[in-house]
Amino acid sequence: MPVLGLIFNALIWGLSWWPFRQLQAAGLHPLWATVALYLLSLLVISLSKPQAWSELLRTPSLWLIMLAAGLTNTAFNWGVALGDVVRVVLLFYLMPLWALLLARLILGEQLTWLAGLRMLLALGGAAIVLMPAGGGLPLPSNLADALGLAGGFTFALNNVLLRREAARSAHARALAMFSGGVLVAGLAAGAMAAVDFIAWPSLPGPLWLLPLAGMAMLFFASNLALQYGAVRLPANVTAVVMLTEVPVAAASALWLGGGSLDLPTAVGGACILAAALLSTLARQD
């Protein structure tokens, strides 16, 4: 059951790009959709443990988790709705590379030879994916690629900060993450809508609220499934199972026209996934 819970979570996130694009086509930008999705989770946490708010408000270190989680959801959800899903998800999964560097900086963890190998693999894979066809520097060529990279970095930061704040209550940490998804995405969407970079939220009719509500419930359920599985399995097993999000996203994008897979992307993606798998060898049960 714990493994099935993690697979369910990976399926929801791996397929999330498609409903985000359908909502965007109907008039609801992914950032506004993100706000709506996390409002349900925020409401449930607030009603079940209202005292978590006082812990969050008096703990500035949890505010950093709020910011990191909000930036992660803002970048990832926007990126997969905007660009090539395969590329965005692969660049997002450079997260183990950023986690190594951030854990060294924030937690003082030592780097090992295996960590160095993982860094080389991840950097090499990213360079292959980002290398322009005509040559040049391997830099993001569009906003979606940049969002994938940024989302992976802030996800790594979120995970490292959660490890640092492990003594805080689970409800306060969850509240920080859910409120970050609402506040950061909402502020970003509002600022961009104010300058006409994106549209203000709108849907063709009230019936569109049904799939939006269903999606919010699925996201909430996937978070519960993640928490259920992660606390019952060794960290290395959790990390491997969660990587199923990558083939799910890639296969669905290739099937439904949300992305493409050329040889450089395949080779670079294999290096990135190899680095992520190697990271599981360094985890303790």
Compose a concise summary of this entry.
This protein is mostly helical and 285 residues long. Helix content is 77%, strand content 0%. It has one domain (2-281).
Please, could you describe this protein's structure?
It is a single chain. α3 runs antiparallel to α10 (170-194), α6 (85-92) runs parallel beside α14 (263-281) and α7 (95-107) packs across α9 (143-164). By secondary structure, the chain is mostly helical. The mean pLDDT is 85. Helix content is 77%, strand content 0%. The chain has one domain (2-281).
Question: Which short descriptors sum up this protein?
Answer:
mainly alpha, 14 helices, 77% helix, 285 residues, 0% strand
Number of discrete domains: 1
Mean pLDDT: 85
N- and C-termini, Cα separation = 18 Å
Please describe the biggest sheet, giving its number of strands, its sense, and whether it closes into a barrel.
none
**Using DSSP, what is the number of strands?**
0
Compute the number of helices: 14
Radius of gyration: 18 Å
Question: Portion of residues in helices?
Answer: over 70%
Question: Strand percentage, roughly?
Answer: under 5%
Q: List the uncertain runs.
A: none
Tertiary shape: globular
Helix/strand order, N-terminal first: HHHHHHHHHHHHHH
Structural class, by secondary structure, is mainly alpha
